[in-house]
Amino acid sequence: MKPSITRLAGLAAVGLATVLATGCIVVPARPAVVEPAVVAPAGVAYVAPIYPMPAVGYSWRYHPGYGWGWWHPSYGWHRGWR
């Protein structure tokens, strides 16, 4: 092969690899927001959850008026308070 054809083939291979790689590049996910742990006041007994976490993002927290329950920063308390 002539040097110009070899050079053209090399450039074509690099161009093809670039085009194929563009479908694999994704924007990184946003970092997870970690909230500080909520500690129940002194004298409050810890109560373990009686059912599994309802969805991703919920945490087991203490509410001063109602007790322990699943809480989400966007959706509030799961199942409300009965």
Task: Please tell me about this protein's structure.
The chain has one helix at about 5-20, and strands at about 60-65, 65-70, 75. By secondary structure, the chain is an alpha+beta fold. The chain has one domain (about 5-75). The protein has a 3-stranded antiparallel sheet with strand order 1-2-3, with no helix packed on it. A hairpin with a 3-residue loop joins strand 2 and strand 3. The longest helix is centred in the N-terminal third of the chain and has 19 residues, at about 5-20. The mean pLDDT is about 80.
**Structural class from helices and strands?**
alpha+beta
Order of helices and strands: HEEE
Number of helices: 1
User: Strand content of the residues, in percent?
Assistant: 15-25%
List unreliable stretches of 5+ residues.
Answer: none
Report the principal-axis shape: rod-shaped
Q: Give the tally of structural domains.
A: 1
Largest sheet: 3 strands, antiparallel
* First-residue to last-residue Cα separation: 82 Å
Integer average pLDDT:
79
Whole-angstrom Rg: 27 Å
Q: Numbering strands along the chain, what is their spatial order in the largest sheet?
A: 1-2-3
- Helix fraction bin: 10-25%
How many beta-strand runs?
Answer: 3
